[in-house]
Q: What sequence folds into this?
């Protein structure tokens, strides 16, 4: 199979993981864990998994200048992103979070144009706007976005969260042309853990371990392995073959997937507006992919060994 299409499949898989995470992560707070407690275990667990996986793969020496770029990317994509997401999700509503996350592809395009000089085409912008309309239709129809004083701080945290992650996608992409995904990710989470440690470790003594049931343990493992280890690994591998703006675009799928999970597992009702929203999102993905197919075939990537 064409490597570009494999990249799209991995990005779709990442969207599945993150789409379910809206339900799973929210269920952990505040009854079982506080946001900073989850972040400590999430980042530590992912770091250990990546370093363990590296033991079975060829070693690569990373240049100092690339380590500095990885450290900066990690501060944004791991530390700021995750701390702001969990703190924000704990304070605001899923509706507000979904609306703010829908701005990610536009933020990625903006950062990519400024920092990486990715070319903006009319077709790419059109596809992103169509996808945005589908995501917004899904989260706004029949809902009331509560941008008020009680959730305002959480909304700001979510905006910082998605801005940091969007810039991370742009900054980390050049490194992927020089190193294997696991090499990059072990350093991303090493620096990320150093960044979150001062803000999270002091919350660990407050955990009520006796109150954590099997559901909470499963959910925590999903957050660590699914939406951290696997999702970051899939995304970083996909960035070897597609533009950062396309990787950011797949965030539009997350509200659709979250809605499907709600219908399947939580008795949510399948309505006409949800079907139309999903069609708009997938139409936008098709337009972006069709326009960029020729340029992606020319992208040079390191060969697999």
A:
């Amino acid at each position: 199979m064409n490597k570009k299409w494999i990249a799209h499949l991995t990005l779709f898989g990442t969207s599945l993981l993150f789409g379910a995470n809206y339900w799973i992560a929210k269920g952990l707070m505040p009854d079982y864990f506080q946001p900073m407690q989850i972040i400590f275990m999430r980042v530590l667990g992912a770091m250990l998994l990546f370093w363990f996986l590296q033991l079975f793969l060829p070693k690569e020496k990373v240049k100092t200048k690339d380590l500095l770029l990885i450290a900066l990317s990690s501060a944004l994509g791991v530390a700021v992103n995750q701390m702001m997401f969990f703190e924000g999700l704990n304070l605001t509503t899923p509706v507000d979070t979904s609306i703010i996350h829908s701005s990610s592809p536009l933020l990625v395009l903006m950062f990519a144009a400024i920092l990486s000089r990715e070319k903006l085409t009319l077709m790419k912008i059109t596809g992103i706007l169509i996808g945005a309309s589908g995501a917004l239709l899904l989260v706004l129809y029949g809902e009331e976005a509560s941008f008020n004083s009680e959730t305002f701080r959480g909304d700001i945290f979510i905006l910082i969260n998605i801005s940091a992650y969007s810039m991370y996608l742009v900054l980390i992409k050049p490194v992927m042309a020089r190193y294997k995904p696991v090499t990059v990710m072990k350093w991303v989470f090493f620096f990320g853990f150093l960044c979150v440690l001062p803000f999270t470790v002091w919350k660990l003594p407050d955990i009520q371990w006796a109150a954590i049931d099997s559901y909470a343990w499963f959910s925590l493992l999903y957050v660590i392995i699914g939406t951290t280890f696997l999702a970051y690994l899939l995304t970083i591998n996909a960035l070897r073959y597609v533009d950062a703006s396309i990787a950011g675009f797949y965030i539009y799928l997350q509200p659709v997937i979250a809605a499907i999970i709600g219908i399947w597992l939580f008795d949510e009702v399948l309505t006409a507006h949800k079907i139309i929203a999903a069609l708009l999102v997938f139409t936008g993905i098709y337009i972006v992919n069709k326009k960029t197919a020729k340029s992606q075939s020319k992208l040079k990537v390191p060969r697999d060994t």
Remarks:
- The two ends are 17 Å apart (CA to CA).
- Residues 293-305 have pLDDT under 50 and may be disordered.
- Residues 43 and 193 are 6 Å apart (CA to CA).
- Residues 3-297 form one domain.
